[in-house]
Amino acid sequence: MIGLGTYAFFWQHSDRVPEPLDLIGAFEQTRALGVDLFQVCDYAPLLELSDAEIGDAARAASDLGLTIELGTKGIAADHLARFLRLADAFDAHLVRSMVFGPDFRPTLAEAEELLARSIRDYEAAGVTLALETYEQLPTAELVGLVERVGSDRLGICLDPANVVAALELPRDTIDACAALTRNVHAKDSAFARQDGWVGFTYTGTPMGEGLGEYPYLFEQIRPRERGINEIVEHWLPWQGDPETTVRTEREWTATALEYLRSMS
């Protein structure tokens, strides 16, 4: 299933725009685009909502016919337990996270112990925990960690754009993670020369216009055959003013949906 995530609404959620979009507003825009899936990923206000507000958001998603996934950072036991409770509130069956949280960077041995303990509750709840590929942890170490824990409810959220910052090749990451992939972040990116030709900037582009390996990912992962959801994200730089930035963000979303829907 093709979905949108909060990173597709990054600037629309931001306080840099006059009227930031709240979570229910993002749900409504997602539904208006004919999309049935939304991933609430790294959305800080989620942890500030009261139980009543969470209930309101969950009901809004349900009323709109949206499937919800959640996303966070970190694998501390209490943090994963909190997101499992949120998954229950939203009837979400996938939580994306990263091994390193904002305040805790476990060793691989610590990470294995934490995951082995927490994953049992996820198994019992029927919720998958998908750990994202990113530059702070080599792909080989992430794959090894997931394999050692050895649970059908623990897998990888594949985002090959992230690993370029660690000088890893996207195709190598796709190949290494193929069997363990449970979720995909779909975006495009490219390098551009900085002003004065001193160095490069690595940033997002409209889907299909950058150096991303999505056709290769699509072929190797076969997400739709395997029931792996594809979540649209953007790395859109600020465009100089709120109106241009929001308009461009919406255009990139439309482009990404058209691109993904054209694939078969």
From TrEMBL:
Start and end residues of each Xylose isomerase-like TIM barrel domain: 27-254
Keyword Isomerase in record: yes
Q: Which domain of life is it from?
A: Bacteria
MF terms from GO for this chain are: isomerase activity
- List keywords of the entry alphabetically: Carbohydrate metabolism, Isomerase
- Carries keyword DNA repair? no
For this protein, the record's SUPFAM superfamilies field holds: Xylose isomerase-like
Protein name as it appears in the record: Sugar phosphate isomerase
Organism name: Agromyces rhizosphaerae
